[in-house]
């Protein structure tokens, strides 16, 4: 029951409220009196702007109320609300002061009538179906003769024991590689994804079996994660899903390349029957024996036919022996003739070689060398004499223009600090100067 906000005032004591004050007081009273409430209704006018907050109306047949669910709370939901959906909401009753609108701020929301997990399952199933992950065209064929099978499951669960028992009974030669993973719990899907990636990186299996035993929807929920669905789709190795019992369906079953109703059924599907294989091998052996006997009989018949057609070889051998004797005689004559021709040519080459003996050539070359040596010595002496005369002449010419020759003619050279004095301006009073004459040096001081 709401308490009166204002008491009636006499006209002389009338007080006024601003609109903001009124809305603030109304908000305070609503939150104080009603607080949090649980209610059920139908969602309408749902919107999710870029801010991340959700805004919608909750209605029944007679009324509706505006609601908001802020992103800090709506991110915890495992489903996305839609118009027309019946939900149960725990909300705080309040008033939006800026517009004076009565509204609810939702903290918790869950579907009414159907479980939240089931709703989330259906929404994800529809989303992945629309994205094409369930299309049969994208499914990879399961090999018919699997040599190595990879199993992604808990190594301690009942499912792996069932699978191994069936495989041992049907075809024990199949190599089994177990990729351990958690198959229940909050982070189980991440361990399954890691096992898938490891199997694809190692690339040592013909097919992969993703399996676990039965359980509730909550127990099997790790197989309904979107990230796992895409990991199965992106696997380069064909994946068979066998999760739970025959009535259990998960997202992994829809995206896998094939589904088996139970782990044991998956083992039956992925293994060959050794009895049937033995019977097939026996049939192949009998067929091969029949074919070999038939082929041997055919070869024997053909050999007998050829034996009848084969003539006596003695006349043919006599003919070839006579031809060989004739060819042998012709070859001997040819060899003898060839030897004679080559002997004659060899004698001619010896005579020619004798005329070219090095001693004769060396004697002639020695004479030429002696003559050239004399000519070289004469040429060198002549050249030296010419160069000597030219040197004497050049020295005489150089002495003519030498400063020493000038000194001999009565001239002198005056130096100051080893620098030639060319003008009176080059010296000052008291300077020491040196005068170079033809037969010595005179040092003097400038007065």
Textual characterization of the structure:
It is a single chain. Helix content is 47%, strand content 20%. The longest helix has 43 residues, at 358-400. The protein has 447 residues and is of the alpha/beta class. Residues 1-6 have low confidence and may be disordered. β4 and β5 (101-111) form a beta hairpin. Among the domains are: 17-113, Nucleic acid-binding proteins (OB fold (Dihydrolipoamide Acetyltransferase, E2P), Beta Barrel), CATH 2.40.50.140; 146-275, 3-Layer(aba) Sandwich (Rossmann fold), CATH 3.40.50.2300; 407-445, no CATH class. The protein has 12 helices and 14 strands. The strands form 3 sheets. A 5-stranded mixed beta barrel has the order 1-2-3-5-4. A 5-stranded parallel sheet has the order 7-6-8-9-10.
For CATH, the homologous superfamily of the domain at 146-275 is named as Response regulator
Question: What value does the Rg take, in angstroms?
Answer: 60 Å
Q: How many beta-strand segments?
A: 14
Shape: flat
| CATH C-level class of the domain at 146-275 | Alpha Beta
Biggest β-sheet strands, sense, barrel: 5 strands, mixed, barrel
Mean pLDDT: 85
Order of helices and strands: HEEEHEEHEHEHEHEHEHHHHHEEEE
**Portion in strands:** 15-25%
Structure classification: alpha/beta
Give me the CATH fold name of the domain at 146-275: Rossmann fold
Give the CATH architecture of the domain at 146-275: 3-Layer(aba) Sandwich
Which bin fits the share of residues in helices? 40-55%
Tell me the number of helical segments per DSSP (H or I, 4 or more residues long): 12
Q: Spans with pLDDT under 50 lasting ≥5 residues? A: 1-6
